[in-house]
Amino acid sequence: MFTLLSFENPLQFLLRYTVIIGIVLAVIGVALCLTAKRITMAVRKQDEINKNDSLYVALRIVGLCLILVGMIVMVLPVEANFYSK
User: Fold this and answer.
1) Positive or negative, the Cα torsion across 45, 47, 52, 58?
2) How far is C-alpha 65 from the chain's CA centre?
3) DSSP alpha helices (H): ranges in 1-85?
4) Digits of tens for pLDDT over the chain (85 positions)?
5) Euclidean distance between CA atoms 30 and 9, whole angstroms
6) What separation in angstroms does the CA of 81 have from each of 19, 74, 85?
7) Cys-Cys with 36: which of 2, 59, 69, 74 at CB 3.0–4.6 Å?
8) pTM for this one?
9) What does the alpha-carbon distance between residue 75 and residue 9 come to, in Å, rounded to a whole number?
10) Residue 7: phi, psi to the nearest 5?
């Protein structure tokens, strides 16, 4: 029976190139979300920013999108004969 995350052991799963790419994208997304406030303060040259600043919101949205894309890429099947089984 086929499952979406079929693998023999956890190491084999973590060594798939789609999983590595997904983890990298997710880590970049988390880092961008966590540093969005500091980046916005540096660009605006202000000590405080509003929560609805357009740059701050845009950086957070891009970070969350990177996390989402990373999670989707991680669960994509690698095999070309996915439907032939």
Assistant:
1) positive
2) 7
3) 10-14, 17-44, 54-75
4) 445 556 567 777 778 888 899 999 999 999 999 999 999 999 999 999 999 999 999 999 999 999 999 999 888 766 544 454 4
5) 27
6) 19, 18, 7
7) 59
8) 0.77
9) 15
10) -155, 160
